[in-house]
């Protein structure tokens, strides 16, 4: 018996049977996965197959239902509205179905549309009424008929290609959703006014799909019961929409909270796993067909709890499936500790949605992008002795990949525990501790990966070990601040915490500092947990006092500031960039900076430089030359990292096979280090 009995159990959806309760929501992975002409590449086929083989019961895939010319911000999508598209659509279906999975196509009707093949893609809606700066092109009756025919033709094409069903996109602020919402629909004809009229176009699309494809062809509906848009849908109306959609032939309610335009955070790591199941729970009070809850579902225990409490029937999501393609198999087989869980860093969303980049990076899974065109692991013909220096994301990724390929791997870590900077980052972003836990599981289950803790690697040590290959992943040098007072006892630098956790107390002036840093380092070296460190910071005004100046408004400074807000600290965040949060991912940036701006305890100082630090605080100078002094207890320097090539350079002439990965050669985000470590080990 699995510990996830409901999550692992089959369920009937229309004429289909899902082998378990885990499905993916629709996606558009972008360039490299699909050509500009709308043809899926080997990369997309492999992506789909990897996840179907990993046990995912149902995969949704976005499909272009009208001719598209890919330019600028547009993502290429597989075309699916003509017989000429059948060969590659069949190939996509075959890759999923041969592993027992189901594949559903979603005609992508979210932002733009074009009524004729030679027209430009533009923003369309029921009327010119809008909730943003974009003014929709109002659809005439002729446009509506063309739109319906486009979607129905796509459904027929998918059915002819052997796909298992179609999903009507009526949520997240898409065209059908704009018709359903009073915030964007002020029509006075049969497509506006009453709830039934506003839902009419969605109902007609579904009805005509049934006529064209047959009553047994399964239709899912992706819709947003709560929009988080002023004047839009609320739960009272949405409970009535449930019956309207079911009468039209829906086999599944796939619920998506919020519109893309909402200011409410929906998918960030600050939202608890399973939070949005309150919406599906409400819908289930009137629904007679299965209901899917989506967004922020990455923990199998929470997924099972949602199903046990009958808050939903199916768990939908995308990032958990990007992070670990074998998530479903590991759940069904009762191996949750083996799941490489999503850490909600949002790199995938930031790239694909915010910047129109392809799906190449994930914080925990390097096998994306070009890597999908190659086998996950290729066994080596000659086992080598591999020395991996550093156990952060880059080093650990390299070590695990090299070991799986058959090499003899030893990780060297100068601290008392694996994880590198993750050990410190987990204090300020607790979800990162998932990755530390995963590392420990791998080491426990793979004793062939040796670990040497509390070991600072020198060229002499490397020479004595005599490795065949070396991977240097020791992290970057913290960027320092060169102003008077920067070495004062009230100044905390990025690596001071990490040094203390590693049992190496930073040397600070003042007897109190010396005692506290030394005692803290001894205690935390043996008893550290992220929760313990957070509790300590919350209850004690040391090493971070009541009033804190954070120098550096990038990702490190924002994460520190966000955590300190929870502990009632008064903050001033200072940065010489135009905006605080300048390098924070698009999914998080608005919500973090908005929280700072709303807080009476946070002052933001962009376009500002530090002039001097004293025992009483920090003096800053603005772009216009004006100066301000902030009286604070602690000055925290969080300016990020520079390259740290000292060790690598010292080994350059003595090690023939030398790889340098992560922040020590290219300070960037966690996903970059994970990918770099994987690529290095793949070459050994």
From TrEMBL:
Give the required cofactors: [4Fe-4S] cluster; FMN
Signal peptide (UniProt feature, chain positions): none
List the CDD domains: OYE_like_FMN_family
Q: Which Pfam families match?
A: Oxidored_FMN, Pyr_redox_2
Q: Which residues form a coiled coil?
A: none
Which residue ranges does the record assign to the NADH:flavin oxidoreductase/NADH oxidase N-terminal domain? 9-337
Q: Which InterPro entries match?
A: Aldolase_TIM, FAD/NAD-bd_sf, FAD/NAD-binding_dom, NADH:flavin_oxidoreductase, OxRdtase_FMN_N
UniProt keyword annotation of Hydrolase present? no
- Entry annotated with the keyword Iron-sulfur: yes
- Show the SUPFAM superfamilies listed in the entry: FAD/NAD(P)-binding domain, FMN-linked oxidoreductases
Q: Which residues form the FAD/NAD(P)-binding domain?
A: 384-665
Single GO term (MF): iron-sulfur cluster binding
Q: Which UniProt keywords apply?
A: Flavoprotein, FMN, Iron, Iron-sulfur, Metal-binding, Oxidoreductase
Highest taxon above the source species: Bacteria
Family assignment from sequence similarity: In the N-terminal section; belongs to the NADH:flavin oxidoreductase/NADH oxidase family.
Q: What is this protein called?
A: NADH:flavin oxidoreductase
Originating species: Desulfitobacterium metallireducens DSM 15288
């Amino acid at each position: 018996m699995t510990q996830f009995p409901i999550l692992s159990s089959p369920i009937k959806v229309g004429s289909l049977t899902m082998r378990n309760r885990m499905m993916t929501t629709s996606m558009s992975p972008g360039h490299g996965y699909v050509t500009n002409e709308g043809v899926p590449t080997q990369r997309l086929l492999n992506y789909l197959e990897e996840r179907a083989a990993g046990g995912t019961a149902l995969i949704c895939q976005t499909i272009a239902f009208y001719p598209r010319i890919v330019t600028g911000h547009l993502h290429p999508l597989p075309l699916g509205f003509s017989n000429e598209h059948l060969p590659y659509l069949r190939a996509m279906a075959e890759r999923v179905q041969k592993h027992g999975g189901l594949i559903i196509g979603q005609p992508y009707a979210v932002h733009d549309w074009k009524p004729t093949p030679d027209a430009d893609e533009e923003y369309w809606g029921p009327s010119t009424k809008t909730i943003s700066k974009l003014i929709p092109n109002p659809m005439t009756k002729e446009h509506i008929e063309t739109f319906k025919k486009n979607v129905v033709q796509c459904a027929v094409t998918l059915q002819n290609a052997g796909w298992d069903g179609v999903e009507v996109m009526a949520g997240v602020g898409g065209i059908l959703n704009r018709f359903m919402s009073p915030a964007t629909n002020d029509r006075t004809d049969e497509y506006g006014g009453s709830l039934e009229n506003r839902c009419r176009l969605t109902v007609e699309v579904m009805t005509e799909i049934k006529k064209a494809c047959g009553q047994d062809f399964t239709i899912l509906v992706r819709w947003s019961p709560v929009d988080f848009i002023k004047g839009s849908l609320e739960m009272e109306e949405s409970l009535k929409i449930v019956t309207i959609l079911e009468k039209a032939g829906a086999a599944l309610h796939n619920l998506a909270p919020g519109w893309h335009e909402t200011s409410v955070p929906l998918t960030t790591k600050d939202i608890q796993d399973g939070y949005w199941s309150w919406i599906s729970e409400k819908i289930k009070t009137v629904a007679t067909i299965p209901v899917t809850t989506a967004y922020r579902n990455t923990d199998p225990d929470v997924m099972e709890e949602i199903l046990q409490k009958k808050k939903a029937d199916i768990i939908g999501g995308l990032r958990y499936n990007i992070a670990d393609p074998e998530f479903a198999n590991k759940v069904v087989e009762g191996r949750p500790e083996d799941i490489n869980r999503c850490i909600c860093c949002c790199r995938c969303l930031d790239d694909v949605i915010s910047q129109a980049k392809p799906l190449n990076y994930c914080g925990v899974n390097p096998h994306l992008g070009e890597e999908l065109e190659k086998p996950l692991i290729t066994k080596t013909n000659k086992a080598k002795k591999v020395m991996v220096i550093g156990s952060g994301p880059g080093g650990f990724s390299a070590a695990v990949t090299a070991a799986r390929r058959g090499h003899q791997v030893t990780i060297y870590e100068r601290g008392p525990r694996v994880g590198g900077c993750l050990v410190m980052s987990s204090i300020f972003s607790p979800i990162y501790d998932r990755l530390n836990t995963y590392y420990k599981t791998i080491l426990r289950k793979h004793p062939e990966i040796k670990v040497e803790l509390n070991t600072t690697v020198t060229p002499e040590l490397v020479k004595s070990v005599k490795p065949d290959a070396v991977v240097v992943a020791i992290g970057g040098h913290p960027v320092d601040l060169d102003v008077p007072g920067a070495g004062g006892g009230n100044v905390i630098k990025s690596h001071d915490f990490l040094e203390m956790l590693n049992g190496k107390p930073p040397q600070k002036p003042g007897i109190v500092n010396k005692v506290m840093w030394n005692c803290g380092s001894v205690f935390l070296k043996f008893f550290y947990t992220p929760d313990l460190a957070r509790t300590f910071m919350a209850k004690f005004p040391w090493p971070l006092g009541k009033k804190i100046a954070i120098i550096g408004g990038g990702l490190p400074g924002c994460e520190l500031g966000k955590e300190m807000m929870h502990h009632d600290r008064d903050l001033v965040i200072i940065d010489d960039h135009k905006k605080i949060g300048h390098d924070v991912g698009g999914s998080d940036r608005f919500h973090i900076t908005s929280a700072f701006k709303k807080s009476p305890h946070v002052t933001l100082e962009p376009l500002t430089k530090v002039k001097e630090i004293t025992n009483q605080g920090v003096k800053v100078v603005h772009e216009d030359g004006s100066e301000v002094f902030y009286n604070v207890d602690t000055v925290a320097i969080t300016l990020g990292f520079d390259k740290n090539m000292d060790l690598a350079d010292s080994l350059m002439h003595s090690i023939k096979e030398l790889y340098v990965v992560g922040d020590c050669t290219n300070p960037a985000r966690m996903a970059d280090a994970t990918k770099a470590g994987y690529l290095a080990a793949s070459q050994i």
